[in-house]
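Example record used in the benchmark description.
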Amino acid sequence: MTATAATAARARVFAMMDADGDRVVTRHDYLSRIDRTVLATGRTEDDPLVAARAEGLKAWGAMDADDDGKLTFDEYNAWVGADKFDNICRFALGALFDLADTDGDGALDKTGFTTLRTALNNPPDNAAAAFDALDADGDGLVGRDAYLASIRAYIVGDSSPMGEALY
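Model output (structure tokens):
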């Protein structure tokens, strides 16, 4: 993947985080992903897995380095990369995956995967293709590690089965 393709991938991720489509991700936009996932998965605020909010707050604090409550695409594009994914984003996204993993087995079936992707503001019509790309062994499940590895590859510009299936 070229630098241009990596930038395009990051632009798609940024657009998904921009809940209201105003080309700026606010704290509310970013944290609403957690609220949508909690609601979509039927969790309640007292569920221990809703600790995902703490990971989301850490991620937001790291992304909003100037603490102005908003993130432009240029700020996000300059910030995101392998190190940031490995040390920050992986935990926030993993916590959201865990919310959708209702049986706690470390994997999502197509329904759970679609629920998560839709809650994260991904187009629901792309979920089946993304799921199929990640379900390499055809067992009807996508594991947490494969999911996170594919997102990481996508945003850093490496080959990503999920990203390639979608775009």
